[in-house]
Every structure is written in structure tokens, then in C-alpha cells.
Amino acid sequence: MHSFAYRANALLTFSLTVLALMCAMASVSDNFNSPSPTSQVQVLNINWFQKKPDGDDEVSLTLNISANLQSLFTWNTKQVFVFLEAEYETPKNALNQVSLWDGIIPSKEYAIFGIHTANKYRFIDQGSNLRGKDFNLTLHWHVMPKTGKMSADKIVMTGFKLPDVYR
Amino acid sequence: MGWVGDQIDSLRSMNVRQLLTQTISLGMIITSALIIWKVQQCVTGSESPVVVVLSESMEPGFQRGDILFLRMSKDPIRSGEIVVFNIDGREIPIVHRVIKVHERQDTGEVDVLTKGDNNPGDDRLLYARGQLWLHRQHIMGRAVGFLPYVGWVTILMTEKPIIKYVLIGSLGLLMIASKE
Predict the structure, then answer these.
(1) Which residue of B has its CA nearest to A146?
(2) Which residues of B are catalytic?
(3) How far apart are CA A118 and CA A108, in angstroms?
(4) Is B28 on the interface with A (CB under 8 A)?
């Protein structure tokens, strides 16, 4: 009962159990945080809007994205992954979600931001349905903890519309 | 060295009944581990409820050696979710984020495009030849939680199999040589 092997085994099991418990408690502590993020997006310019040779529409936008996501950060947060997405409906597809821009916020100081950018990922439709299309711009964020359960949420901003003709 | 001598002595003084008891307890341990594994699969709805992160394509969020807990539900796949998927012809599952979703009106089937957070481009390079989109059948689960560093044991055992043999060998020896 007192050999080195038994003691080492008992110590290892105990420390692993304590570690697992601490990770679980850290994850539970995230539930006590009630975040209140805000954001605002403007489409500053439609750079161009064309039908590609393969028949799909593509549009390039310049966006101004600003947000305050500081309330999402807790002591157990490793980073917040934020991305902006266009959502719209077409006759063939009940839902289309196209990610236009994303970024990583490593800590609370960077969580207030405003950027002026062209879309990072191409806004391409499956087909030629984008003329005059109404779409929502949704800012999603994904809170990735140092340990435990991840959570995600979004703010939907409606009222954006693409031009009726190509340019 | 005297410790090794003691172990060898204890090995010699074994009788058949003790050996059988040892084997049965070992079998019980292995079986209960298997039962826990299978129950996990049922509860989370996914074929492998836990995966180890193998590459740096999702840094800084997921580092190599972290483990991810997966869950698969009938909920539709939406942009921003971190999914684990298999490509036909590749055996290692990939953990990346969904960046584009196109869902059909009539059938509800989805075309999905993924990208690793740390990769410059989307995953079309990784998909099978001629494949532009992922579909629901490729996706094994969504990541819902994670634990850092714990997966290193699995990575070490896969990349240096000698460690696996040494570990199992010494475990087996300890099992046999202990008197309980």
C-alpha cells in the first residue's frame, strides 16, 4: 500500500480529477456572464456586379463594419471569432449564407473595432438571382473559451438591397 | 534492480486461479471502457464523439493536441459552425468552420463550404477532385466544447508507435505482477 507505484498512481488520478473539475467549473462560470454587444454595418459602395462566365452572379462590396464586443469576454475566453455574413433567399435555395469577412479578436482591448474593407470572400450566388435582391447582413461571433463549452450568437441587420442592373 | 527481482519472484509464485482472476478483471476494465465509448456515441449522435486537433489550420483558437467534443443533431447546418468532416479517400477527419451555406427549397439539402480560420483560402483544395461543396453526409459532427493539451497523448502514440507498445507492455507487466 505504500510503494512508489501506488502513491504515484493515486497522485496522478487525484490531480487529473481535480484538473477536470477545475475545467468544468471554469466553463460553468461563463454562464454568469450576460453580454450586451452592439454593432453597425454600412455598405459604402457596390464596386462591381456581374454575371460570371459560368452563369453565377458575383458582387463586390466595400463595407464599414463597426462593433463593440467587449462584454463577451470573460476570464475564461481565449478569443472571439467574428464574421459578417450576407443572407438571402432565392427561388431555388431556401437559404443562402455567404461569409463576406471574418476576423479574430484575441483579447478585450481589440473588441471595439471599426474597419473599412472590401469583402474578404467572394459573394457568389448559385445562379443568377442577385439583381434587385434584398439581403440581411448578420454579424456572428463565436466565443472560444480557454477550456469548456463554446457559444455563439449574432446580430441581424436587415434592409440591404443589391442594384437592379449589373455594373 | 531489487524491485525487478521482487516482481520476477512474485510472477513465479502465481497459481492458475490468481492468473484467471487477473485476466477477468482486465477483461472487465476493457469491456467497461468500450461500453462507455459506445454510450457516448449514442448520446452525442456522432460516430466519434471526441477528436484530436492535428493541424494548425484553426489557430489560435484550436492548437495541435487539443481535443474537441462533438455533437450531431438534426438541426440544419448553418454558417459559422465548426464542423468535423471526412473527405472521400482521406481517412483523417478535418475540423474547420463553415463559411458558405446554400440550402435547397424543396429537399432541404445543403451545399456547404468550409475554411480553416488560419488558412488563407477555403477548403476546395482539400475536397475530392471535382467536388465543390460538402453535403450533410460528409459531416460527422459539430464541435461544442474543447479541452486543451489532452490530445497530445494520442498524437504521441500515433506518431511514435514505439511509445504505444512500451506503454501497453509495461501496463500488462504491472497487471500480472501485482497481487490484487
Answers:
(1) B148
(2) 57, 96, 123
(3) 25
(4) no
Which tens digits make up the pLDDT trace of A9-32? 888 889 889 988 988 888 888 888
Distance from CA of A136 to the nearest CA of B (A): 14
Strands (E), chain B: 50-52, 67-71, 82-85, 94-104, 110-115, 139-147
CA distance B142 to B69: 8
> Which residues does B162 contact at the CB level (< 8 Å), separation at least 6?
none
Q: What is the DSSP string of A31-48?
A: GG-----EEEEEEEEEEE
Contact A128, A55 (CB under 8 A): yes
As a residue count, chain B comes to 180
Tell me the C-alpha distance between A100 and A83, whole Å. Answer: 8
Of the candidates B138, B141, B143, the residue with the CA atom closest to the CA atom of residue B87: B138
Distance CA B77, CA B90 (A): 22
Q: What is the pLDDT of residues B123-174, one digit of tens each?
A: 888 888 888 888 888 888 888 887 888 778 777 777 777 777 777 777 777 6
> What was the pLDDT predicted at B46?
63
Q: Do A126 and B122 touch (CB under 8 A)?
A: no
Mean pLDDT of B89-116: 87
pLDDT (tens digit per residue) in B29-78: 888 888 887 787 777 766 667 888 887 888 888 888 888 888 888 888 88
Number of CB atoms found within 10 A of residue A110's CB: 15
Instruction: State ipTM.
Output: 0.82
Per the CB < 8 A criterion, the answer to whether B143 and B95 are in contact is yes
pLDDT band at B179 (very low <50, low <70, confident <90, very high): low
For chain A, how many residues are written?
167
Cα angle A49, A124, A53 (rounded to 5 degrees) comes to: 70
User: How far is the C-alpha of B11 from the C-alpha of B13, rounded, in Å?
Assistant: 6
- The candidate with the shortest Cα–Cα distance to A100, out of A134, A59, A128, is A59
